[in-house]
Amino acid sequence: MVQLIAGNKSRDCELVIFDKDGTLVDLTQVLFGLARARRLAVEERGGKEVANLWEKVMGVDLACDKMDYGGPLATAPRQQEVLIAAACFYLTGYSWEEARKHAEKAYDEADEFMKPPFGTVLIPGVGAMLKQMKAHGLKLAIASTDTHRRITSSFEALGIAMLFDAFVGDDDVVNGKPAPDMIVEAMKRTGCTPEQTIMVGDSVSDMHMGRNAKVQASIGVLTGSTKKEKLEQSADVVVSSAAELRAL
């Protein structure tokens, strides 16, 4: 197995699973890009009243460039977010069936508005880190609350898709984070066991997912929205950025 160095600790492993937003890519740019596209699509279908309510319940204020990084837009899987959006339509006079259909179509339309890589920008040093790990023979995977299609399209546009052995999105599993399903699916696709696997993420949910999947270690990074003190409560080790990781 390959030795993974994180801070002053090292682990032998064969597979490293990364969260995407906040871990490998700039969380702020991705989220605000999504917020603007989804707000526009919701407003086109339901008007400003629905769109304003959508912003409020999603935890975003686009006029002031503010966001609650613990809110639904930043943390909820897409499937849950669509249901929340449907509630916004419902609360402004639509039947539940109409509300659900409008929300689903609005989110599909928002995806069409955005083109790959969907505002995705790699965190400095991450690209070199991924190439260094791959050169040492590590298998790499993604476990993200984003959809499989958006993950794949984003990384293809950035020219790094070939570095990964598996992409697992929220739509690939029954239960999202912090359930172990995404990690289990990534291990299944790469032929690795929990003892051979390390999880890297920026949220407590990522750390709990790793623990629930019984991987040998969960590494927290501080490039997302979670404070160091919070991550340290559930991570085996915390580093400033995934770019600091290296293989030997």
> For the report, how would you describe the main beta sheet?
6 strands, parallel
**Major beta sheet, strand line-up:** 7-6-3-8-9-10
Poorly predicted regions are none
Radius of gyration: 18 Å
Please describe what this structure looks like.
- Helix content is 46%, strand content 17%.
- The chain is elongated.
- α8 links the parallel β8 and β9.
- It is built from nine helices and eleven strands.
- The protein has two domains: 153 residues, HAD superfamily/HAD-like (Rossmann fold); 85 residues, no CATH class.
- The strands form three sheets. It has a six-stranded parallel beta sheet, with helices on both faces.
- With 248 residues, it is α/β, with parallel strands linked by helices.
Spell out the key features of this protein.
alpha/beta; elongated; Rossmann fold; 6-stranded parallel sheet; 3-stranded antiparallel sheet; 248 residues
Ordered list of secondary-structure elements with their pairings:
Elements (H helix, E strand, L loop, with lengths): L1 E5 L2 E5 L1 E4 L8 H32 L1 E2 L4 E2 L4 H4 L2 H14 L4 H18 L12 H10 L3 E5 L4 H11 L7 E3 L12 H10 L6 E5 L2 H9 L4 E5 L6 H5 L4 E3 L6 E2 L1
Parallel strand pairs: 3-6, 3-8, 6-7, 8-9, 9-10
Antiparallel strand pairs: 1-2, 1-11, 4-5
Helix pairs in contact: 1-3, 1-4, 3-4
Gist of the model:
With 248 residues, this protein is an alpha/beta fold. Helices cover 46% and strands 17% of the residues.
